[in-house]
Design brief:
about 180 residues; mainly alpha
Length: about 180
């Protein structure tokens, strides 16, 4: 029964964890579109700021914000939840996955802000994008492409689906084996 409970916890976690780590994306997108809508970037450029400085500050600030959020998430998972996933999975692997996902979210926000003009619509689209891509990805993982089936390459090219698949594979490995406790 303990193996069944662990498997059930890991399956539910495969739905919830990626979603929880994706909810900063709408904030990143909203800030970019709001600054564009209010013409704050234009004012900063008129006052002598280089656009490279603007993007550097945006990336560093949002990267640090997301990194702190990830650290708190993993600390709570380690000490409050104490599941095999948090206790036995390699911290190096978790760091690589978290950093990759943060960078992917920053890139997605920078891309999508070029398509949007209103901050309100960016906020709504950001949340819809974050929630629905994670729900669709989880559904594909659990319902269609369960282990040992592989995701098609074109689906893996979409960052939210690739991130969701990574979490799914790590959590399933913790159900079946001894987690990914080394980076190979």
């Amino acid at each position: 029964s303990s193996a069944f409970v662990d498997s059930l916890i890991n399956t539910v976690s495969a739905l919830i964890f990626p979603l929880a780590l994706s909810l900063l994306f709408p904030v990143m997108l909203y800030v970019l579109v709001l600054e564009k809508e209010e013409r704050l970037v234009q004012m900063m450029k008129m006052n002598g700021m280089k656009i490279s400085s603007y993007w550097l500050v945006y990336i560093v600030f949002n990267f640090l914000l997301a990194a702190i959020t990830n650290i708190v998430f993993f600390l709570i998972g380690n000490f409050a939840l104490s599941t095999n996933f948090f206790l036995k999975t390699s911290p190096g692997l978790l760091i690589i996955v978290a950093v990759g996902w943060i960078v992917a979210q920053l890139g997605l926000a920078a891309f999508l802000q070029t398509l949007l003009d209103k901050a309100r619509s960016a906020n709504i689209i950001g949340y819809i994008f974050a929630i629905w891509t994670m729900m669709i990805g989880s559904t594909l993982n659990i319902g269609v492409y369960q282990v040992p089936n592989e995701f098609p390459g074109w689906i893996q090219a979409i960052p939210p689906f690739a991130f969701n698949r990574l979490f799914y594979l790590m959590l399933i490995d913790c159900s079946d084996n001894d987690c990914y406790n080394t980076i190979a």
